[in-house]
Design goal:
The complex is a heterodimer of chains A (about 230) and B (about 110). Chain A has helices at about 5-40, 45-55, 55-65, 75-85, 85-95, 105-110, 115-120, 130-155, 170-180, 185-205, 210-225, 225-230. Chain A is mainly α and about 230 residues long. In chain B, helix 3 (about 70-90) packs antiparallel against helix 4. Chain B starts with a helix and ends with a helix. Chain B has helices at about 5-30, 40-60, 70-90, 90-110. Classes of the chains: A mainly alpha (about 230), B mainly alpha (about 110).
Chain lengths: ~230, ~110
Amino acid sequence: MSNRNKRVEKALRAAFPASFPVLTGFFVLGLAYGLLMSSKGYGPLWILLYSSVCFCGSMQFAAIPFMIGEFRPLYVLLLSIMVNARHLFYGISMLEKYKGTGKLKPFLIYCMCDETFAINSSSSIPDDTDASFFYFFVTLFDWLYWIIAGVLGGLIGQLIKINTTGLDFALTALFVVLFIEQLKSRKNAICGVAGVVAAAAALFVFGGDKFVIPAMLVILAILLGGRKKLCD
Amino acid sequence: MRLNALQAVIIALMVALGTVLTRALPFVLFPEGKKKPQIISYLAGTIPAAMMGLLVVYCLKGISLKSSPYGVPELIAIAVTAGLHIWRKNVLLSIVAGTLLYMLLVQLVFV
């Protein structure tokens, strides 16, 4: 086997355990999405279309009310840009890491959801592992988990007997763990705490539906304002 | 009432378009090979930690502090997840144990 194939295989082997927490979380959320979509009259094929082409969990949920009433495409577009605005920050952070990923890059960008960003931005990839393919496999796995879980939810409807209440905490736990991993350096610890404080304050003031963009602006202001101190 | 098929496809495309615009814009503005402003490099190094903090809060946005159980199950499960992670430094262990504990709490304890 060529050296390159070995590096790609290592990337595949490393990407699965790295993406495992997302499997748990997406399984529950995807299932819930599938159940909800089918209850509104959108079967497995519609779920397949939405989950594969849109691949943006929270906005897919937010779009459901607009799939059963009046047809308002422009409003949905604007809503999607606002709900997804946090991706702008992910893109800025991943400019360097996704550099040189070549043909894989459009897919990496198209499918850069919260969870994929969280894993790919935090993972330290060993020298003997192909970084581009590690990013690719994490992205691909997360995408597939989401699609498969959604379609399954649509197919089995109310047949599930297991009580999965609380299983989606896996995603919260994933972010908590990755947050702690960020706290190792002084600079990141300050940024991390700033993120929590800004988001909590914005949540308190603006409420659950509208706090993300104000929180991003406050974070941006803190990071820019503290630039001199953080760079020392 | 459900949208017709063409309308539902257009809604999917609008959702996707909004999403991809936000995901791709930084890569379009700062393509490979073009020198980035220093401020962007600085932000790239500081944003991930801040956004991880925001994502934790984002997951908790549905909690009500005014009605039972006041976010107590979340608080306990996050404390255990974090404590376990600082102690054992094993990502999967922290997540699986924290999630199982949370399920136990919301299904059996705080019902």
